[in-house]
Design a protein that fits this description.
By secondary structure, the protein is mainly α. It contains five helices and no strands. It has one domain: Cytochrome Bc1 Complex, Chain D, domain 2, CATH 1.10.760. It binds heme C.
C-alpha cells in the first residue's frame, strides 16, 4: 500500500525531521503541514542561505516540487544543508510525498 511505503520511506528522515508540530530541537526543520507551506517555512529553524533565498522568493512546496526535490535535494537548492541521497524511484517519491501530504501522518 502506498501509504505504508511512504511511512517506511520517511523512517530515515525522522532522525532529523518531525511531523509533530510541537516537536522541536531536531537537526532539521519541522515538516508538519509541509505541502502548501513556503520553502524554509519553519519559523523556529535557522535555514541555510540557499533555503532562505528560496523563501524570500516566495517559493511554495507543492507535490511536483517536492517530488523533484526528493530525486536530488541538493540539485534543486545548491548549498543545501541536507546531505542525503535522493530517491531513485518515481513511485517511491510519490508515496513519500503522499505520506507527507496527509495531515494525519505523524
Ligand atoms: C541528517 C539530517 C537530515 C536527514 C536524514 C534528512 N533531512 Fe531534510 N533537512 C535537513 C536539514 C538540516 C534541512 C535544512 C536545510 C537547509 O537549511 O539548507 C532539511 C530540509 C528539508 C526540507 C525543506 C524543509 C522546508 O522547511 O522548506 C525537506 C522537504 C526535507 N528536508 C525533507 C526530508 C526528507 C523527506 C528526508 C528523508 C528522505 C530528509 N529530509 C532527511 C536535515 C535532514
Amino acid at each position: 500500500m502506498a501509504e505504508e511505503t511512504g511511512m517506511r520511506l520517511f523512517e530515515p528522515c525522522r532522525a532529523c525531521h518531525s511531523l509533530d508540530p510541537a516537536e522541536r530541537g531536531l537537526p532539521g526543520p519541522n515538516l508538519a503541514g509541509l505541502l502548501g507551506r513556503k520553502v524554509g517555512g519553519d519559523p523556529a529553524f535557522d535555514y541555510s542561505p540557499a533555503l532562505r533565498a528560496a523563501r524570500d522568493q516566495g517559493i511554495v512546496w507543492d507535490t511536483m516540487r517536492l517530488e523533484t526535490f526528493l530525486a536530488d535535494p541538493a540539485e534543486m537548492f545548491p548549498g543545501l544543508w541536507m546531505a542525503t541521497r535522493g530517491l531513485d524511484e518515481a513511485a517511491d517519491r510519490r508515496a513519500l510525498v503522499q505520506f507527507l501530504a496527509d495531515p494525519a501522518a505523524r
